[in-house]
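Hey, quick one: can you model this chain's 3D structure?
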Amino acid sequence: MGGRPVAVTVAAWLLMLPPNTGLQGRRLRFEPLGKWKTIDKFSSRTECERMRSELVQRMPNSAINTARCVSEDDLL
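Sure thing. Here's the predicted structure for all 76 residues.
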C-alpha cells in the first residue's frame, strides 16, 4: 500500500461580473474572465448559483443579470 499521498484540491466558485462599458450600465460579457470583477467566493457551484438567483430577484433590472458563476480553475 505504500504510495505517495494524493493531494486533493477543491476549486472554489466565484460569482463574477463582466466589466462595465460605461454606457448606460452595459456590460462586456465577452471579455476574458481575467477582466471580470469577483463579487464573492463560494465552496460549491450550487451555493454560487443560489446567491446569483437571490441577487437577480432582489435587483431584476441591474447588471447582476450578467453575472456568472465560474470555477476558480477556469481562471488559471
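One thing worth noting: The two ends are 33 Å apart (CA to CA).
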